[in-house]
Amino acid sequence: MAQQEYPKLTEIVTDNAQIFNESQLTSLRGKLYQFESETTNQLVILTINELGNETIEQYALEVFNQNKLGQEGKDNGILILFSKLDREVRIEVGYGLEPYITDAVASRIIRNMMIPKFKEEDYFGGLNTATDQIIEFLNNPEALEEFKSEIAAEGDIPWWLVGVIGLFLMMFVAAGGFVFYKGYSTLIEILRGMLIGKLAVIRGVFMAAFMMLPLIFGLVFMGMPLFFISLLLGFDAEFSRLIEDLSWVVFLVMAFIVLTIFLVAKKMKDKGDEDLKLSFLKSDKDYMSKTFSSTGTHSFGSGSSGGSSSSFSGGGGSSGGGGASGSW
Question: Most C-beta atoms within 10 A of its C-beta, which of 135, 238, 271, 290?
Answer without folding.
Answer: 135
